Every structure is written in C-alpha cells, then in structure tokens.
Amino acid sequence: MESAERALAARDPVPRVDVYGFERPADFDYAAYEAFSSAYLGVLAHRAGRWARLLRGNGGVRRSRTVKRYVRKGIPLEHRARVWMAVSGAQAQMDQHPGYYHQLLQGERNSSLEEAIRTDLNRTFPDNVKFRKTAEPCLQSALHNVLLAYGLHNQGVGYCQGMNFIAGYLILITKNEEESFWLLDALVGRILPDYYSPAMLGLKTDQEVLAELVRTKLPAVAALMDGHGVLWTLVVSRWFVCLFVDVLPVETVLRIWDCLFNEGSKIIFRVALTLIKHHQALILEADSVPDICDKFKQITKGDFVMECHTFMQKIFSEPGSLSMTTISRLRESCRAALLAQG
C-alpha cells in the first residue's frame, strides 16, 4: 500500500527521488523536510483512516459538507484519483462516454497538433525519472496520448503550453490515461474556462481579478506594483497557467488541487492571496521591477509552502472572506475592461 510506503520512507533518510519520481534539487533542505514529514506522517495516518471509512462500500463520493471538510484536510494518495474523478464530475463524463477516449486516439490525425505536443514532451519534468526516455514505462507516451486526445476533443483549445505540466501531474496521480483525459477536461472545460483558448481571455481576466483583490485586501502591495508599473501577468502568470506546478512543492500542489477539483477556481485566488499576504513585508522591501520579480519567486520557496498542512489551513483563514459571488462580479468587470482594450 502507498501509505505503508510513505511510512517506510519517513523512517529512512529522505530519498533523493520523491514518491512521485521527482529528483530533489541540489539546494533541498533535507533537515527541514525530515522535521516536517515526521509530523505530517501522523496527520496522513489519521486522515487515511477517516477516508477509508468514508469510502467503504460501493457508493460514490458525492459533494457534501463532510466531503468538503475532508478534502480541505487532504486526500490520501491512494484515494486521490477516485475522489478527484468523483467531485470534479470527470467520472460521470467518463461513464456517459464509454470508449470515447480511445476513439479519439484511433481517429483522424492532426499533424500540426501532434508536432506542437511533441515539441514540449522533452521539456516536461526533466527532473522526474518517470518521464525520461530510459524509464520503463516512459510516461512521455501517456502524456502524448492524453494531450493529443484532448486537442482533438476540444479543437477550440487544441494544445497550449502549460497543459503538459497539468496533464503530467494527472498521469502521475491516476496512473491511467483515460482518467487523466477526463480530469483535464474537467479543468480546462469547466473549472478554468478560457484559460487555454488562443486568446487566453479567462486567464488574463483572472490575473486582473487577483490585482483587484490585492488592491482591496493588500493596498500597500498594489501601490508598490502600480508605482513601478509592474503588470501582474509578469509575476503570477505561471501560478495560473500551471496551477502552481513547478512553482510550489509537489505535495502542496496536490493539496491545492484536492480543493480545486471540489470547490473550483476560487481556490487559486486563495492560494495567491495567502502567498502575497504572508510575505507582504518582504515584497514591500523591493525597490525596482527586477527586485519585485525576485521577491515573487522567493515567496514560493521555503518552510511556509513546504509545510502543506499548515499552508492549506492558512489559505482558508488569511485572505478572509472570498465568495464566488465576489469573484464572478470582478470577472465580469475585468473581462469587459479587457475586451474594451481590444
């Protein structure tokens, strides 16, 4: 069982390659991670028991207050794929379209789509041993298939850079191409509409929404950005495009995604606001555009983001009230402003 493997890994020295196949960077703080993981192991064991009881029997996982509370506290790795599939609606879509994924792969070819995907395959997780050509099996093949099928399924999007990182994480968790395809569809088609379309209007809109939220909740940071003429896209575009993949530690990203699949896109704003608010004093030390950019890189490193359990508690307390109604209203005004700019 994966939970047993985790327990074993926590007792031994921290391995150079993590459970997901990522090699730890040269500057990795093994001592801090060991201190965190020994405490987090107890949390995982406690959560695993509760999830096992919740998932007992053949009943599906349905959104409820209990499930929301459980998801916010973290889904054990062995249950993650099943819960993501259920709460996102991906399972229902897959059940309604049996064989559809394989039909897409066996259908008409699209050489320009395939070329765009192939170009990015080697750039996807070079630090992950499971995506190397020498790996057996090499997950590049599964990644190619999922991205190709999705590009054929949603021709308005096709393939967009950033989707490779998201699909890669989905494959690592589900270990199943078809499930990864339907989860990608849930994200790109429903949870993050217009993030990956050619005009990327949804993505641009949400970056402006974050700017407005910062202006309201953290006016000093907004004043710094405005004073130096820094566009928010310069410092946060990767947060939105890659959903924090390759920005925050793997375990923290997966905890964010647990909530993203269940509660929707407002989670991205909660994470972004928490990172900025918690490091407000550091950001305000910046006195130039390059310095601001550097500070925004710094705030995604260190103990605060590594200790994922505490971090996830903070995202639901530090930003304060953040309703979907507020976000929807801001999206309308920001979208209108962007369209007016042409």
What does this structure look like?
- This protein is an all-alpha fold and 342 residues long.
- The chain is 67% helix and 0% strand.
- The chain is built from 20 helices and no strands.
- It has helices spanning 2-11, 30-54, 65-72, 77-88, 90-96, 100-106, 111-121, 139-153, 163-174, 177-191, 201-217, 219-227, 232-241, 250-263, 266-278, 280-283, 289-298, 303-306, 308-315, 324-341.
- α4 crosses α10 (177-191) and α14 packs parallel to α19 (308-315).
- The longest helix is centred in the N-terminal third of the chain and has 25 residues, at 30-54.
- The protein is globular.
- Mean pLDDT is 92; it is low at 7-11.
CA distance, first residue to last residue: 54 Å
Please write the string of helix (H) and strand (E) elements: HHHHHHHHHHHHHHHHHHHH
Low-pLDDT segments, ≥5 res: 7-11
Largest sheet: none
Number of helices: 20
Residue fraction in strands: under 5%
Instruction: Choose one word for the global shape.
Output: globular
Protein traits:
20 helices, mainly alpha, globular, 342 residues, 67% helix
